[in-house]
Amino acid sequence: MYDATVWRTSKIPLPPEKMPCRIANEETGELDCWCHSVLFDYETAKLTALKIEHDTWCSSGGLTVDGNLVSTGGNGKGANTVRYLSTCEKCDWREYPSSLADPRWYSTQVTLPDGGFIVFGGRGAFSYEYIPIEGQTNKNPTFLPLLQQTSDQFNAQTQFNIENNLYPFVHLSPDGNLFIFSNNRSILLDPKTNQVVREFPVLPGGSRNYPASGMSVLLPLRLKLGTLKKINAEVLVCGGAPWDSFYYAETQKKFLPALQDCGRIQITKPNSVWRIEKMPSPRVMGDMMILPNGDVIMFNGAKTGTSAWNDAEDPNFAPVLYMPKGPRGQRFKELAPSTIPRMYHSSAVMLPDGKVLIAGSNTHDGYDYNAKYPTELRVEKFSPPYLDPSVAGLRQQILVEFSDKEMSYDQQFSVKVSSNEPKLNIDEVKVTMYAPAFTTHGISMNQRLLILGLVDVVSNLSTPIVHNIIARAPRSGEIAPPGYYLLSVVYKRVPSASMWVHIK
User: Distance between CA 426 and CA 145 in Å, rounded?
Assistant: First the structure.
């Protein structure tokens, strides 16, 4: 986890081993002796202090093939920075403040089929660029007209810059192209030729990107055995705000109702159109996560207003489950609400045990613990319905030490599970691989779930009962970029705890 450095304070002093202090102001010599980044142990809540120099406020990120974190952009001197954090026990941030050609404040980072990265957009940056090798510097970005064309202004007289094109939604399609959604428009871009392959219809109803801040996921990709047919891919975009909501919130403190609809489109199909569905409640600034059983869940956000300081009201406390395979009109289900408002600067992340970690909310310019919506330092874990005790008997237990943790593309691998069931019907078993997301400001970068093709399920009736599940790995980096994934065995829609697997 990390926070902005711009406020020059936090609740955690920089420990002696991380000294000297950061120079916060070169003109005055003011020092910042506070910690702005930590490793958080999600099982014990232990915090390990890290030292970060260049402001990460509104930045982006993703994991390398080897599981290390690469972070791009941010505010001020952080805008052109690329940062690296390796997984060794005493590793700390390595930062290169001039690596990027354009400033990347509110940009989106995407993992490519070869494991490299590309970063799109940012405030005043209508472009994209490939993240260079560590320590090197990009000279020129590539202009992307879509980002310029989707930047809203209120009118010619006020020249009030609303934008609505920041943190664009970008998803890697299984054909290797990139689906890019900005404001209410979207394209399919070939990253090898920099050519637009397809333009999609406008998604009606309002704006979906920061500060309108809707949510988006690439719906689970179902991989089948023995076929080289094109894999169908669908994108879901939910919530957001009217295009001028930010103007009214900023200038009049008038908070317009957030959007209550979702659009769903097949991005691998020519002439595809948006299909519209209605959520149980409006939501802006929400977070949308893919669960290991293939369902989607939405958290956080507000029912009125937009992103930005003090620009929203009416927190949306209720998580909503979306079941992509459910009958149309019956795909949404509200779940038990939180009691903590989590609006601007909230986040969520999937954990290996199947819970979701929820954190954040800071609607103010700085730390404010006495406001109506105070700066929120508490974190929560949410247990989805599949963790209800009534279905605990269906939960398989992966025998990690007897399962394949390294895999190669298009090759068979084995996962062994301990079970209460004497026989697992192959039709009721799924093996899923989840690419963990970098989550900030309502966008979860690089998140994807793969439902793998199953070869066989072989049962051993010893005590305890063990089943050997044989599955086939994804066939290419276009479908599953190389790196670490959380693998789950799902039985009758109840997922096991996950184990880490590595594909390259």
Answer: 48
Write down the domain spans for the chain: 392-503
Strands across the sheet with 275-278, in order? 215-218, 234-238, 261-266, 275-278
Annotate 390-406 with DSSP letters as a single string.
GGGGG--EE-GGGS--E
Rounded Cα distance between 486 and 101, Å, is 34
367-393 tens-digit pLDDT: 999 999 999 999 999 999 999 999 999
Direct distance between the N- and C-terminal alpha carbons of the chain, in angstroms, rounded to an integer: 26
Pick the CATH number of 392-503 from 1.10.357.10, 2.60.40.10, 3.40.50.720, 2.130.10.10: 2.60.40.10
| 325 token code pair | 């395979």
Residue 146 neighbours by CB under 8 Å, 6+ apart: 180, 182, 185, 187
How does pLDDT run across 109-127, given as a tens digit for each residue?
Answer: 999 999 999 999 999 999 9
8 A C-beta contact, residue 281 and residue 254:
no
Helix, strand, coil percentages (3-state) for the chain, rounded to 5, are 5, 40, 55
Within 10 angstroms of residue 389's Cβ, the number of other Cβ atoms is 6
**Region of poorest pLDDT, from 165-179, 376-390, 456-470:** 456-470
